[in-house]
Amino acid sequence: MTDETDGDEQRQPFPDSLCHRCAAPPQYIRTERSTFIRCPILKRYPPQPVRDCEAFVPVPQGERRA
Fold it and tell me: Could you tell me the pTM of the whole model?
């Protein structure tokens, strides 16, 4: 199992998920056959793609996550 953050939008799993646009940087857990996205606020792995989230905080405009 590998923990990594991937800034490349084309390689992001579930590209329409809110997780990729959240100010709380998600943790990507990749296995040989699956990718899971862990939310640092909720401290769980929400079913993907997330389209509505009570904990969502948008990344401030003009700011990019590494």
Answer: 0.69
